[in-house]
UniProtKB/TrEMBL annotation:
Active site: R166, D446
A single BP term in Gene Ontology: glyoxylate cycle
EC numbers: 2.3.3.9
Malate synthase C-terminal domain location: 412-529
Sequence ranges assigned to domain Malate synthase N-terminal in this UniProt record: 14-66
CDD domains with a match to the protein in the record: malate_synt_A
Protein's name in the database: malate synthase
Chain ranges of the Malate synthase TIM barrel domain: 162-404
Length: 529
């Protein structure tokens, strides 16, 4: 690793990648350093608060609404008006920040493209820097790409899809840039660099900049985002409130602070989103020591399971009361080539998922693949003739603490157990190889979906007393045997990440045997990138 000398206190680590000098000029580095010095102590304190809260959950406490913020929940207030470009968000496509993906997504008929530095990105230095280059070119309208087969890609002149960027979550460091010897936060790096390069141009077009904020756990974390954005607005000469945010409610603690999160960002927030996959992961993580709330295998945890149904409906009620969008989430099915029946069944599942969302009152939804846009759009066009449905107040929804954390019934089958191991190893291998989103067994898998399998394996093995539906105990003999079989079989499979299978299996073994559930799979994995 070569270190590149830069302005005082700032160091770049690792081999320089194409486009790095353009993305990280001195002025951008100075801005990042200033952000780090100003805001990193607060970020560290918030991460420590997460750990302290989890320790209380581990000791038996249950999450609940906060007593000290009752006045925020009870008072009548609304979020700032939503800009024209974000009024209608019925279909949002998401995807990692590689060049072809960005062009295809912005050329799609989706209302929004969420360019993702988070769940669907493996944060190699090259991917993070190239992602900034690609987005800068996309905003400038000059992005183009030629594939290995010679296919040319460019933005359509009439492309109208609105860009929203999702930076990494507060927990993730960017180790290739240190300030005074400490890694900068991935969140600050992604958001600030994107704003530095594109804010003026987007603002001039009434297009933002707009952001999706992931994995928040508390209103204080939202308040920190608000401070960061206000600071950047001043530095970049934008009116306060120009940067708009949509917050993913994808952790269990956050569902108890939805009003508070909207309130903390009320000058700039336009909606909340049901990030269902991380939410399921967070439910498992929060209750990792609670044997009475162990979830069944992943295939049995659909959005109609009580704790998920109540969460999504309360999100709609909360948002609409405050004048904010209540965005739905991602169905994991993707088109299946070469098997018409399987494809029809997968598309029907997506359609039913979107139908449930629009009928419940969501204002829009996510798709993982362009082939799903017509399905989602068809359903929302049919049931939502207006740009959004904020007038659906859902005052009928009663979601108290107990319903939001309700235990689930179901089973753990042998194939469900094996599937968790198999998907985790395949996904981790791809991630270590630089791919953050891959199709596995015809489903979209990203960091959030993989976390479910990883956390379940740990919990099933550590909470005690778990058995498969055939009566076999879930123990380390079973796990080690399945892991060895999977790791032995996979190298034959011709998958992305094939060369990292052994490393992925070793990491899963280590994480699953550890006495404590690691907070995020991506933290130990990042050390190996
Ligand atoms: C839990 C969460 O956080 S959800 C949000 C994070 N997850 C995502 O964003 C999912 C993004 N989706 C993807 O990465 C991909 O769709 C995958 C990995 C699931 C499947 O990818 P592939 O197997 O390559 O799909 P497939 O071969 O069918 O792609 C067909 C075409 O659609 C394009 N495409 C696929 N997905 C997307 C997308 N999300 N956005 C734009 N274009 C896309 C491909 O680039 C390809 O283009 P081409 O014909 O010009 O070559
Ligand atoms: O980010 C989305 C999720 O479901 O997790
Ligand atoms: Mg997520």
């Amino acid at each position: 690793m070569a270190d590149t000398p830069t302005p005082s206190g700032i160091a770049l680590h690792g081999d320089a990648v194409a486009g790095q000098d353009g993305v990280l000029p001195g002025a951008a580095l100075e801005l990042l350093a200033e952000l780090h010095r100003r805001f990193d102590p607060a970020r560290q304190a918030l991460l420590a608060a997460r750990a302290a809260r989890q320790a209380r959950f581990d000791a038996g406490e249950l999450p609940d609404f906060r007593a000290d913020t009752r006045n925020i929940r009870d008072a009548d207030w609304r979020v700032a008006p939503i800009p024209a470009a974000l009024q209608d968000r019925r279909v949002e496509i998401t995807g990692p920040v590689d060049r072809k993906m960005i062009i295809n997504a912005l050329n799609s008929d989706a209302k929004v493209f969420m360019a993702d530095f988070e769940d669907s990105s493996s944060p190699t230095w090259a991917a993070m820097v190239e992602g900034q280059v690609n987005l800068r070119d996309a905003v400038a309208g000059t992005i183009s790409f030629t594939s290995d087969t010679g296919k040319q890609y460019a933005l359509r002149e009439d492309a109208r899809t609105v860009l929203i960027v999702r930076p990494r979550g507060w927990h993730l460091p960017e180790k290739h840039l240190t300030v005074d010897g400490a890694s900068i936060s991935g969140s600050l790096f992604d958001l600030a660099l994107f704003a530095f390069h594109n804010a003026a141009s987007l603002h001039a077009k009434d297009r933002g900049p707009y952001f999706y904020l992931p994995k928040l756990q508390a209103m204080e974390e939202a308040a920190l985002w608000d401070e960061v954005m206000a600071f950047l607005e001043v530095r970049l000469g934008l009116p306060i409130g120009t940067m708009k945010a949509t917050v993913l409610i994808e952790t269990l603690p956050a569902v108890f602070e939805m009003d508070e999160i909207l309130h903390a960002l009320r000058g700039r927030i336009v909606g909340l989103n049901c990030g269902r996959w991380d939410y399921i992961f967070s439910y498992i993580k929060t209750f990792r020591r609670h044997a009475d709330r162990v979830l069944p295998e992943r295939s049995q945890i659909g959005m109609t399971v009580p704790f998920l149904k109540h969460y999504s409906e309360l999100l709609i009620k909360t948002c609409h009361r405050r004048g904010a969008h209540a965005m739905g989430g991602m169905a994991a099915q993707i088109p299946i080539a070469n098997d018409a029946d399987a494809n029809a069944a997968a598309m029907e599942r997506v359609r039913n998922d979107k139908l449930r969302e629009v009928k419940n009152g969501h204002d829009g939804t996510w798709v993982a693949h362009p082939g799903l846009i017509p399905i989602a759009q068809g359903v929302f066009d049919e049931y939502m003739p207006t740009p959004n449905q904020h007038s659906t107040l859902r005052e009928d929804v009663v979601a108290d603490r107990d319903t939001l954390i309700a235990p689930s019934t179901g089973s753990i089958t042998r194939s469900g157990f094996i599937n968790n191991v198999d998907v985790c190893v395949r996904y981790l291998a791809a991630w270590l190889d630089g791919l953050g989103c891959v199709p596995i067994h015809h489903l979209m898998e990203d960091a959030a979906t993989a976390e479910i399998g990883r956390a379940q394996l740990w919990q099933w093995l550590h909470v005690g007393g778990q058995v498969l539906d055939d009566g076999a105990p879930i123990d380390f003999v079973l796990f080690d045997d399945v892991l060895a079989t999977v790791a032995h079989r996979l190298p034959e499979s011709g998958l992305p990440g094939q060369t990292r299978i052994d490393e992925a299996a070793a990491l899963l073994g280590e994480l699953t045997h550890a006495d404590t559930l690691a907070d995020f799979l991506t933290l130990p994995a990042y050390e190996r990138l």
